Amino acid sequence: MKKATMILDKDYIIGRVDPRIYGSFIEHLGRAVYGGIYEPDHPTADKNGFRQDVIEKVRELGIPVVRYPGGNFVSGFNWEDSIGPREQRPKRLDLAWMTTETNEVGLHEFVEWAKKADTEVMYAVNLGTRGADAARNVVEYCNHKSGSYWSDLRIKNGAKKPFDIKLWCLGNEMDGPWQMGQKTAYEYGRTANEAAKMMKWVDPTIELVACGSCAHDMPTFGSWEYEVLNECYSNVDYVSLHRYYGNPTGDTPGFLARSMDLDDFIKEVIAICDAVKGKKHAKKKLNLSFDEWNVWYHSNEQDREIQKADKWGRALPLLEDIYNFEDALLAGAILITFLKNADRVKVACLAQLVNVIAPIMTRNGGGVWAQTIFYPMMHASRYGRGTALRAIMSSPTYDCKDYEKVPVTDGTAVMGDDGSVTIFAVNRDMEESVSLECDLRAFGDMKILEHIVLHHDDVKAVNTEENPGEVAPRKVRGGRTDGGRMTVKLPALSWNVIRLGKE
Ligand code: AHR
What we know:
Blueprint: E1 2-7, E2 13-16, E3 23-25, H1 52-61, E4 65-68, E5 92-94, E6 99-101, H2 107-116, E7 120-125, H3 132-143, H4 149-156, E8 167-170, H5 185-202, E9 207-210, H6 223-232, E10 238-245, H7 252-256, H8 258-280, E11 287-295, H9 300-309, H10 325-340, E12 345-351, E13 360-362, E14 368-370, H11 374-383, E15 387-389, E16 392-394, E17 397-398, E18 406-407, E19 409-415, E20 421-427, E21 434-439, E22 447-454, E23 474-475, E24 480-482, E25 485-490, E26 494-501
Parallel strand pairs: 1-21, 3-4, 3-12, 4-7, 7-8, 8-9, 9-10, 10-11, 11-12
Antiparallel strand pairs: 1-16, 2-15, 5-6, 13-14, 15-19, 17-18, 19-20, 20-26, 21-25, 22-23, 22-26, 24-25
The chain binds alpha-L-arabinofuranose.
């Protein structure tokens, strides 16, 4: 059996884990809203039309923040369309996804839904077709107490108390040619700065995310971040990163190594933020909001057909990736990478939450079930809170197409505020188990409370409504601790959560 080692110490600390790294995203796209969280005719719908079965699953996942309402959608969205009496709200063509938006679910409804789902709203403003004026108005509408045009309109529309939304995105993917109102770095940087200034003048307690480049492999990546931050550094709090991966060629070892790209991406954005900080002689350190990440490729072809067949349709089944077991392993490796960078990655959103490239799937009029990627996300959110530890690891490695020396076993650990320790580990080996030996002597006499494993013999195995438990975590025994040293077996191709405590 292969062997990997890990050394943990209370004093080897990366930083506090910001729970918002377990965030997610709901866009007005496909069946995320209509047919996902909202389906008034569904047997479980509440009086506002929200599916209770979906809310329960979202709660199970433990999502502290949900980005809304887009995405590409937001770059053509008039937020004013989404308030006031429902029957008077306009139907609009959405040029991002070539569908029709009815605005049946709007700002008030989503804030209500978020409360029920035990989560906070992260609201994106439109800096594509709109600008600073609309952005400051929506902050006034949401967060100003009363006594002004927009705050009084909110009260008239039924919400006496301000929504108090704390986290705001300054547009979405503004360097993408597919984006409505695409901009150069300078144009966007100036717009974002003016919007940020005014939004914070309305409510100085809010935090703002400036758009980084759409992806690590965009030609604009790097210079975009530098030029944008050069314009808006002092008025923003985070820069965004977006990244999706796919495995169209069926190269599992290469696919599972993609978290190495993610780590490079994070490190490069940190370096750029710090370069701008140095250039500006600034005291403030900028942090990262990885506000879109996931696997996304399974549905690409199907989407082209759907959009061709029903241009301007409503709530079309778009971006409905059916996730397999290897996707869950990569999701786990991505979450480990966020934890390893917990000192700078303060927000991260699994894109998205329901039906659209999502951990939670629904059938209209039918059931709700967890896709494979649901589980690593749920485990990390549930057990990965507290202080991120700097695990000193050594592991056998392998080479693949894009990377050399990929660790077979990737892992990290979090110390809970109750003194417990949770180790998260992925074994990327296609055939062999790995014996993970961990030196925990600094923590005293720790025992294994639980070892949870997600494994399937078939990397392409999926969960369906009929068979929702095909890929599901199970508890295993066999690990042991002795004199502060722990040994556990990580099965070939597995996601592992090892919870340790005093009793
Ligand atoms: O999450 C799906 C889409 O991916 C988002 O709308 C966009 O921001 C990104 O390109």
